[in-house]
Amino acid sequence: MSPLIATIIILLFVGWMFLRDFRERPNVTGALWLPFFWVFISGSRFPSGWMEILGLHLGGNSVDDGSPLDALFFMFLIAAGLYVLKQRQVSLAWFTANNRWVTAYLVFCLVAIVWSDIPLVAFKRWIKLFGQPVMVLVLLTEPDPMESFTRLMKRLAFIWIPISILFARYYPNLGRAFDGWTGMPMNTGITTNKNILGCDCFILELFFIWYFLRVRRLEPGRARRNELCLCALFMLLTAWALRMAHSSTSLGALVLGTVLMLVVGFDFLDRRRIGTYIVVT
């Protein structure tokens, strides 16, 4: 199959998946696109990386400098996220009172800038770190947080997995690279490193296994059957992409996470001792 035909098929498939998602009219708001783009870019390539594909060099002169385009992109998402949280009446005082450990971690990272060799760069990266709880709060303050989380993960899978397979198989200049230490070739897919691709696949595969188990409990019907078919399809595609990545860490984490998820579902286990079970495992 030629790369052009493969590209058309993949793009039609991605478009059909999103059209199917929109037709279901999920109980989510437009603000869900903020965490979607945050996670999508963080798990694939930064905006400057996508511009590089088009032949536009918009990155900085060094890794420390970063790219003005990337900084502008993340600052826009953070500002938009803060605006959404303000509209939903989520205050900083409420956040710190209900998330003390997260607050302590963010404060420690802020204080750590004092002894950094590159304080300005560290401060810019702290701002980006601050954007992560902002995106999480946007997700959790949706009308139906569980539905929003499910839609977020499915929409990421609609792009990450098909495009990764397309890049790795038909566009080696985009989806493949060489290991800087061993010189061995590796499949990177939509990302820039095989381990990042493996991490994406691990997260999505674990999600679809969880979602499959959840959908199985629904009442028999057409909607249930369609969702089970969707889960099966993307579990296969994600497993294929994970195999291409050759990421042993991601594979091991997937096996451990799946086993833990299944074991926790046993009725004879005391769920109050989950922490003990995890440590023993």
Short description:
The protein has 281 residues and is mainly alpha-helical. It is 71% helix and 2% strand.
Task: Characterise this structure.
By secondary structure, the chain is mostly helical. The chain is 71% helix and 2% strand. It has 13 helices and two strands. The chain has helices at 3-23, 33-42, 47-53, 68-87, 92-98, 100-111, 119-140, 145-170, 172-175, 194-215, 222-245, 248-264, 274-280, and strands spanning 176-178, 185-187. Strands 1-2 form a two-stranded antiparallel ribbon. A hairpin with a 6-residue loop joins strand 1 and strand 2. Helix 2 runs parallel beside helix 8, helix 4 (68-87) packs parallel to helix 7 (119-140) and helix 8 (145-170) packs across helix 11. The radius of gyration is 21 Å and the shape is globular. The termini are far apart. The relative contact order is 0.09. The model has no long low-confidence stretch (mean pLDDT 87).
Keywords:
mainly alpha; 71% helix; 2 strands; two-stranded antiparallel sheet
Please state the overall shape, judged from the principal axes of the Cα atoms: globular
> How many runs of DSSP E, i.e. beta strands?
2
Low-confidence stretches: none
Strand numbers in spatial order across the main sheet:
1-2
Share of helical residues: over 70%
